[in-house]
Amino acid sequence: MFYRDERLALFIDGSNLYAAAKALGFDIDYKLLRQEFMRRGKLLRAFYYTALLENDEYSPIRPLVDWLHYNGFSMVTKPAKEYTDSQGRRKVKGNMDIELTVDAMELAPHVDHIACCSRATAISGRWSMRCSARACGSRSCRRSAASRR
Questions:
Q1: Of 6, 17, 132, 144, which cross-links 115 as Cys (Cβ 3.0–4.6 Å)?
Q2: Residues in the chain where the model's pLDDT stays below 50
Q3: Residue 61: how many CB atoms within 10 A of its CB?
Q4: Residue 117 neighbours by CB under 8 Å, 6+ apart
Q5: What does the alpha-carbon distance between residue 142 and residue 95 come to, in Å, rounded to a whole number?
Q6: CATH number, domain at 135?
Q7: Is residue 140 part of a domain?
Q8: Alpha-carbon distance 15 to 52, whole Å?
Q9: Domain with 68 in it
Q10: How many helices (H) and strands (E) would you count in the chain?
Q11: 35-74, pLDDT tens digit by residue?
């Protein structure tokens, strides 16, 4: 539940939200998502976290990252790590849990409500997110989470 006069911050773990939407068979309209949070309260900041492959000439996520930045999202990116697994398959790793957690804890004293869209939210029981939720709660900040398990 949201209150119209509360200050909101939105934290989106991009890769996990994308995976959840893909698993459910739909695309996310980020402009509409941001507008919805603006309608529900005073949206102070909307963060989008993602890892990017730096060595590729073209990254399929780059146009989305640029569009989100242009349309009011605060982008938090870091280089993804690429490796080969034991079966010789190319894998990419770019976990943003710690960055999201630290930012949420730092912003908690300045907002009334934090909304998090991630697989690794407080619901999932991940240690980093449990710490974040506990810290935000101790600062009298309400929390909402959308998650996939």
A1: 144
A2: 120-125, 127
A3: 17
A4: 10, 11, 12, 13, 17, 145, 146, 147
A5: 25
A6: 3.40.50.1010
A7: yes
A8: 10
A9: 7-146
A10: 5, 7
A11: 999 999 999 999 999 988 877 677 788 899 999 999 999 9
Q: Which region, left, alpha or beta, applies to residue 81 given φ > 0 means left and ψ of -120 to 50 means alpha? A: beta
Q: Is residue 65 part of a domain?
A: yes
Asked if the structure places residue 1 within a domain, the reply is no
Question: Which helix (H) or strand (E) element contains residue 67?
Answer: helix 62-70
Structure tokens that stand for 96 in this block: 């943003």
The DSSP secondary-structure symbol of 43 reads: E
- The residue type found at 112 is D
Tokens read off for 124: 């999932």
| Calpha distance 141→143 (Å, rounded) | 7
Number of domains in the chain: 1
As given in the structure block, the two tokens for residue 82 are 């690429």
Token duo for residue 139: 């600062």
